[in-house]
Amino acid sequence: MHSLTQSSQHYPKRPSNDVLRTVPLMGTFVTIHVVGQVAGQEEDSGQTMRNEAVDRAFDWFRRVEECCTRFEPHSEVMQLANQAGVPVQVSTILYHAVQFALAVAEESEGAFDPTVGYAMEEHGFNREYRTGQMVRTPLDSNRPVSYRDVQIDAERETITLLRPLIIDLGAVAKGLAVDLAARELQPFNNFAINAGGDLYLGGCNPSGEPWSIGIRHPRSDNELIDSLRISNRAVCTSGDYERRSSKDDGHHILDPHTGSSANGVASVTVIAPTAMLADALATAAFVLGPTAGIQLFDRLGVDGLIISPELERFATRGMSDYR
């Protein structure tokens, strides 16, 4: 799980007309909280509308996972891995996820690279979270690959792998699912989605204030290193404590240029208009390191906080607006 969790909330007991549900999805627990009733609707009708919207929101997580997971041999992205060298027409979900991942890869000069799937397997990050089974994907080539080995055709929505490779969308897919879920909940204004630390906070909490969230201390499990007040923004955190390799005790954020765990950062928190952008940029900045990571945030107009292994803080100027 990512390190960003909701801090203690200082508002009254949850009203009976709120909707609050948690479901295990995409290898984590997804919690959706919709506040209050729909303006102009009778209470029973409004409650039904909220529940139906929450059902649709959770369905997006299932649909994105079916397309984008590399832990299921029959998923769309893993079927793509079996068809190197030919254009493959894919779903709009998978095409959009890959297109976005390639754009971030280009912007970060390869610090973010979605073609690290096979390297992730080699490092031991290949256990299916529901069954515990290990995923083994034989490839015809051990040559180095990069995002430049993936071609897309926007008109036909096709993806071509120029070499045998596995696309890993772990830093994109969950954010995409959060954004699609948030779209379903926008009519209700005030809501929160927490997908294992990838969050979107719409409007206000039940007391009418911005949502309060805490950023986990990267070296102390039960301590927060910062807290933020967020409204109508996504927040994502990546940390070196989240998932450890069973093979070499490295963490799951690999430097695509070296194939090893990036070690210049302890945690990265990004605040952005969308969860997909926040999630991908957190990974990119983790690899780039504090100085280049903050430069990337400034260039793309997002805010962020980077904590070094020595607990030195690097932040964009705009972070002060969220405290």
- Derived from helix and strand composition plus strand pairing, the structural class reads alpha+beta
Which CATH top level class of the largest domain fits?
Alpha Beta
State the fourth-level CATH superfamily of the largest domain. Answer: ApbE-like domains
**Which topology of the largest domain does CATH recognise?**
T-fold
Query: Which word captures the global form?
Result: globular
CATH architecture of the largest domain: Roll
How many distinct domains?
2
What are the low-pLDDT stretches, counting only 5+ consecutive residues below 50?
1-12, 38-42
- Using only C-alpha atoms, the radius of gyration works out to 20 Å
Mean pLDDT: 87
Report the β-strand fraction as a percent range: 15-25%
Major sheet: size, sense and barrel closure? 8 strands, antiparallel
Output the helix-strand order.
Answer: EEEHHEHHEEHEEEEEEHHEE
* Spatial strand arrangement across the major sheet: 2-3-7-8-11-12-13-14
Portion of residues within helices = 25-40%
Determine the N-to-C terminus distance. Answer: 24 Å
Give me the number of helical elements.
7
Number of strands: 14
Provide the descriptors you would attach to this structure in a database record.
323 residues, alpha+beta, T-fold, 2 domains, eight-stranded antiparallel β-sheet, three-stranded antiparallel β-sheet, 14 strands, globular
Write a concise synopsis of the structure shown.
This protein is of the alpha+beta class. The protein folds into two domains: 4-64 and 183-322, ApbE-like domains (T-fold, Roll); 70-161, ApbE-like superfamily (T-fold). It has helices at residues 43-68, 76-81, 92-107, 117-122, 173-185, 275-288, 290-300; strands at residues 4-5, 19-25, 28-34, 88-89, 150-153, 158-161, 191-195, 198-202, 211-216, 224-230, 233-239, 267-272, 303-307, 313-315.
